[in-house]
Amino acid sequence: MLGIRAALALVGCAIVCSGCSALLAADPTPVPGAAATLTRSSRTPIPTPVRTAAALTSASPVASRVAVALQSPTAANRDVTDEEVSQVQQQLQRSLDSANLSGIESLLLDHVSLSTSEGGQVMDAAGAASWLRDHAGHGIQVTRVDRSTQAVMLEAQTEGWPTQPPLEQGQVNFGLRRYDANGREDEDKGDWKVDVVTAL
Fold it and tell me: Per CATH, is 53-199 categorized as 3.10.450.50?
């Protein structure tokens, strides 16, 4: 009788252990409908939120001016001409050719977002010009000016800056957008102004 009880106990233990090992297996328990839900979600486009100028007015004037430009209908329809690109490149190169970056202030917006390997900050035009002069040297060249496909903006890449912290690669990029005399973005009639400086 004792032998039968021991045998039944061993069989019961074996059944419980095999159930536990199934629960601890690497494969997760399938959730009913999970595959169908995953397939539907991969085929359903995620709507992109529409951002308007009204949404940006709640931000500070400085933050809204140096924020990344969001695509708008006018930005998508406004073509930047080759002549505009050439004028910006020549004006920036003239300023970088002079020992003290003469005229750089005229290219800067009243507040500029500066990004370096040490972090980022927003500076007024005088502070940004001073920073650029402190880090400039001879032989700086505008190597290219690219148009954005998302907004009315240009990015000018320059090389030849002295490689001293925070400039690790000797490169400074300038982001430019069109602004009116009051510092408001004006994609059609504004002047090209640097609102972002990225030091690499």
Answer: yes
